[in-house]
Write a structure and sequence with these properties.
The protein contains five helices and 23 strands. With 426 residues, it is mainly beta. The protein folds into three domains: 117 residues, ApaG domain (Immunoglobulin-like); 118 residues, Immunoglobulin-like (Sandwich), CATH 2.60.40.10; 136 residues, Immunoglobulin-like, CATH 2.60.40.10. Strands 16, 17, 18, 19, 20, 21, 22 and 23 form an eight-stranded antiparallel β-sheet that branches. Strand 22 and strand 23 form a beta hairpin. The protein starts with a helix and ends with a helix. The C terminus is likely disordered.
Amino acid sequence: MQLINIINKKKRIIFFLILISFICTLVILIPLFQLNSIECPKTEIELTCTGFNSTTAYFNVSVFITNPNDFSMVLKKINISLTIPTGQSIGHLTIHELSIPANKKTQYCENFNISFHGKNPTLLKTKSSGIFEIQIGLFQKNIPFNFYINTNMMNMINEVKAPMINSQLQFGSINQNEINVSLSLDIYNPNSFNMEINNISIQLLDKQDTSYSSCTPSDVIIQSEKHNIIEETISISLNALNSDLLFLNSSMDIQFIIAGFAKQLPLNISSKINLPDLNTMLSSSFPTDVIIKGDYHPSLNGLIDTIILVVRNPNNIEFTVKDIQVHIYRIDNNQRTLIGNGSIDSGVIQANTLTKLTGEVLIPYTKVLLPTGLNLLPDWLEVSIRANATIKGLQHYIWVGMIAYQDLHPLRKDPDILDDLEIWYE
């Protein structure tokens, strides 16, 4: 009986040992089975450039990790580095640890800044590395990961906006050879980074690309979202006013400074220039005065009227007048009757002095002395002069006219016109 009890006791001990061994086996095998059946988490990394200025580019990195397993894991030693095609590192970000619950999606976002250090940033290579750490019971498993992302920055760089340029010309003083012109270029930088403008060349051309003036202003730097005004004074040939249309051509090299990287862009702008009204360019201190005098002498065929045209030119330039036509009318009771035609030879109106031009008109006696109504002589004689005038050397003429009234009173003595004009301007 005692032997039986001993045997039963040993059986129970063996049973418990087997049970314990089975449990231990399960405890060991189940975690090992889980470790061997791990599904790789889905990892997404988004790198976005949020903006840049002359020295810095601003980036946002977002890490999305989805854990499809029934147990949690930890992502450690996450390193994200940015390199350019030459292999030079331009940015680095370290995330020390991320806990990822079972069957959950975890998101991590962080901002960081980089500089391109003068290198071409059109292609950025992003290397991401880290370790997934899994702890099940007494067992731990580490899964390293590495992957690369290429980011094309060309679209971002191509979105750079060209400067806005407003050009203005103001015509100033004029002499016989040239016109002084004030030139202004208002340049606006609409970008968030600085730009340099180099190799500026400005030319004033006609339709045949004949250059009348040019200048090369100094290089300028325009701050982000700021204006810079370039001002120059140039002289253009007076012959430029012979052109129907002028163009202001501006060429320059634009250098954009983006996060330490310089990108160059050539720029050419052409704008039409409205030619100035000559009246606005002449002296306004004194008017250009014209006096007409008629000196009558009898002849066999009638009265010869010697027309004296006196012009005082207060400007620094000479004028040319041609096609000077003279028409003389008699005025009777406010009625005009043409009685004579003539002309004055073309001439040059000298600068800053008095110029006298003369011509003759024959008036038949029948038209002067033949009574009209009750008058033997006319009430007045009207002398009308028309001519083409321009600045000497120009081809564009303007049609001008002037009218004077005379009487035939035999006792009137006309003053000396040149003396009178000199007295008026003293």
